Amino acid sequence: MPSDPAIQAGASQIVRRCLGLEPEQQLVILMDETTVDPAVAIAEAAERLRVPHTAVLVPVAVQRRIPHHGDLSLATQGAVRDARGRPRACPRPAGRRFKRG
């Protein structure tokens, strides 16, 4: 579990408020080598909020081939298709601040 309370609160807000997920709605989290930490924080928040989730590591090398070869397994494709929430953990661009909505 992330030790930083701000990270825990932010991840919970993503699951509950941004995605609007309720307990028992399915969440799929796609991550790569560069986004493991935020993906884990979101998965832990989903666990605390009783939102079932599937986390899938899709290495960057595989992502580069997807548009050409459709390299996601059938199980992963099915999980993504059936999920209510599909966040992608994306790193913040260096030197840029997030805009407030």
Q: Fill in the CATH topology.
A: Thermophilic metalloprotease-like
Q: What does the radius of gyration come to? A: 14 Å
CATH class: Alpha Beta
Structural class: mainly alpha
Describe this protein's structure:
Helices cover 46% and strands 10% of the residues. Strands 1-2 form a two-stranded parallel sheet. The longest helix has 14 residues, at 5-18. The protein is mainly alpha-helical and 101 residues long. 21% of the residues are buried.
Relevant terms:
101 residues, mainly alpha, Thermophilic metalloprotease-like, two-stranded parallel ribbon, 2 strands, 46% helix
Short note summarizing the structure:
The chain is mainly α and 101 residues long.
Helix and strand arrangement:
Blueprint: H1 5-18, E1 27-31, H2 36-48, E2 53-57, H3 60-69, H4 74-82
Parallel strand pairs: 1-2
